[in-house]
């Protein structure tokens, strides 16, 4: 269930992963790059709309797949000072080693 004022916070490494992947697609086809960005935004919106509906990954994280692309968004529900948020830890290509990002510190710290 989504809280009315749920914020989405991105780990700096997740932002870099997204930008790096977007540049990779842009070098090949600008239309595909745009579709990739839209698909990532859609995945984040789905996580925000119903965070607890996505599969659990390693106990405390959740995974939402990016439609039409081999990527997944890994996030965790956080509640700092009574403010619920979604903390995005990774924008990961599905061919990468699972959980490589697990040791990242909370982006809210």
Verbal overview:
This protein is an alpha+beta fold and 109 residues long. It has one domain. Helix content is 34%, strand content 30%. The chain is built from two helices and five strands; from the N terminus they run βααββββ. The protein has helices at residues 12-28, 30-49, and strands at residues 7-10, 56-57, 61-66, 71-80, 83-93. Strands 1-5-4-3-2 form a five-stranded mixed sheet. A hairpin with a 4-residue loop joins strand 3 and strand 4. Helix 1 packs antiparallel against helix 2 (30-49). The longest helix is centred in the middle third of the chain and has 20 residues, at 30-49. The radius of gyration is 14 Å and the shape is globular. This is Type II toxin-antitoxin system RelE/ParE family toxin. Keywords: Toxin-antitoxin system. It holds the Pfam family ParE_toxin.
């Amino acid at each position: 269930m989504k809280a009315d004022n749920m914020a989405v916070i991105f780990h700096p490494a997740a932002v870099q992963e997204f930008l790096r992947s977007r540049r990779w697609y842009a070098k090949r086809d600008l239309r595909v790059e745009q579709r990739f960005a839209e698909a990532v935004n859609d995945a984040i919106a789905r996580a925000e709309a119903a965070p607890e509906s996505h599969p659990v990954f390693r106990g405390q994280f959740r995974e939402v797949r990016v439609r039409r692309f081999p990527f997944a968004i890994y996030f965790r529900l956080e509640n700092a000072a009574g403010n619920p948020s979604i903390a995005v830890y990774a924008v990961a290509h599905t061919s990468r080693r699972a959980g490589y990002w697990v040791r990242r510190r909370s982006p809210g710290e």
